[in-house]
Task: inverse folding
């Protein structure tokens, strides 16, 4: 069943979740002389253990919003709360600690270290994490137990993205942010990576927020946020997301 909220902040009443991410009235502009407003009072709420996706045309502010939620950038106004903590009140050191320990990032082009093996790419993150998962367990979870000693150039695009996901989840982040995670992959490989993200969400309980141009991905998520001109203009919730393998691409 699908329910549609009229207000961008509309939050479902469920027993499973509870509010995990709350963005309210977020504003961000770029430029000094000519100021360009990019986020114009953006509101978004996502429940714990859910998968959310932000859809919207190029330039609508998706990456800007995600960078602020990930603690990579700061807003000019408004608030972001993650798991009860208000990012906008953090000092730079607290924001660094938040980025390092509480958030995992997955990008379109994997960003693996080329002269480290798959296992080593995961280990460099696990070594600086407070309570890391076991590298072998995480590589097994992403289906790459047998490719631990391969270098990125010896892996397919889909396999490299799986390493990137392993690297992002080895620190047990509460929040996984994915920026066009399938943007560089063919359809079949994309569906495999999306299925993996659904499994990470189900098995590790990680709350996931993705951004994409591909509206086909919406069906596999719990919450769909449509952005336009720096605002979330529509929110849709799915009580029963479709398994990624069954997405109509
Ligand atoms: N560091 C920056 N300095 C100046 N302008 C910026 C900066 N970062 C983003 N912008 C501008 O802000 C607007 C929103 O960019 P953003 O990357 O958030 O959009 P997006 O929806 O993620 O787009 P895309 O889908 O193309 O990645 C764009 O017009 C962009 O040019």
Result:
């Amino acid at each position: 069943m699908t329910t549609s909220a009229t207000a961008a902040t509309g939050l479902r009443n469920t027993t499973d979740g509870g509010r995990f991410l709350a963005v309210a009235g977020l504003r961000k502009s770029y430029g000094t002389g000519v100021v360009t407003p990019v986020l114009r009072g953006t509101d978004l709420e996502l429940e714990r253990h859910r998968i959310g996706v932000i859809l919207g045309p190029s330039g609508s502010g998706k990456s800007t919003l995600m960078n602020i939620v990930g603690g990579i950038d700061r807003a000019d106004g408004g608030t972001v709360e993650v798991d009860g903590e208000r990012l906008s009140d953090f000092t730079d050191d607290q924001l660094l600690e938040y980025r390092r320990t509480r958030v995992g990032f997955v990008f379109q082009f994997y960003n693996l270290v080329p002269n480290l093996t798959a296992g080593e790419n995961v280990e460099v993150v696990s070594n600086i994490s407070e309570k890391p998962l076991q590298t072998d367990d995480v590589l097994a979870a992403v289906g790459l137990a047998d490719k631990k000693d391969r270098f990125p150039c010896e892996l397919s695009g889909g396999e490299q993205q799986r390493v990137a996901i392993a690297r992002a989840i080895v620190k047990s982040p509460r929040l996984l942010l994915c920026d066009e995670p399938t943007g560089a992959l063919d359809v079949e490989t994309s569906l495999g990576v999306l299925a993996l993200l659904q499994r990470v969400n189900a098995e590790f309980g990680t709350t996931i927020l993705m951004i994409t141009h591909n509206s086909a991905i919406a069906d596999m998520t719990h919450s769909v946020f449509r952005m336009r001109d720096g605002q979330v203009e529509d929110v849709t919730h799915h009580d029963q997301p479709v398994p990624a393998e069954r997405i109509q691409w």
Summary: Residues 2-102+173-246 form a domain with the Rossmann fold fold (CATH 3.40.50.300). DSSP finds six helices and eleven strands in the chain. The longest strand covers residues 19-30.
